[in-house]
Amino acid sequence: MSEEFELVSNDGVAFKADWLVVKQSNTLKTMLESFGIDKNSENLESIPLPKLNSKVLGKILQYCKHHRNDPPYDETKPFLPDFITNWDAEFFNVDTTFLILLAEAANYLDIKSLSDALSYILISIMKGINMCSIPVAVFDQMC
């Protein structure tokens, strides 16, 4: 019986993650369940994640590991700034370009709590910013 999954970034770095971490991603959870794979499955293949580099995937997994025992996220309720803990504030203390990459990854993996938090943070950052001042490189990395 294996309770760990191996997730592989697009630059070939493998990460181990348990079921409580993996199932926070609706994309991964749905994919695994559609193949009849659960936390008790044996001889699992690596799961390639071609849209994520190791830096982004590692950061996403750090978030999911920290929140592995949280109650299920209720996306029907409005996101409130109070949802961001001190740990989360430190986690999100990265440059804006990387926050955008994390938001793209959270959307790709369908991790609602992370997507909502990042959306709130990015909107807060962009209030008062002249859109013309955002570097073209930010948009190039999103495409």
TrEMBL record:
Taxonomic superkingdom: Eukaryota
SUPFAM superfamilies assigned: POZ domain, Skp1 dimerisation domain-like
A Gene Ontology biological process term: protein ubiquitination
MF-aspect GO terms: ligase activity
Matches recorded under Pfam families: Skp1_POZ
SKP1 component POZ domain mapped to chain residues: 5-69
Alphabetical keyword list: Ligase, Ubl conjugation pathway
Annotated metabolic or biological route of this protein: Protein modification; protein ubiquitination
Family statement drawn from the similarity comment of this UniProt entry: Belongs to the SKP1 family.
Protein name: Skp1-related protein
Organism: Trichinella pseudospiralis (Parasitic roundworm)
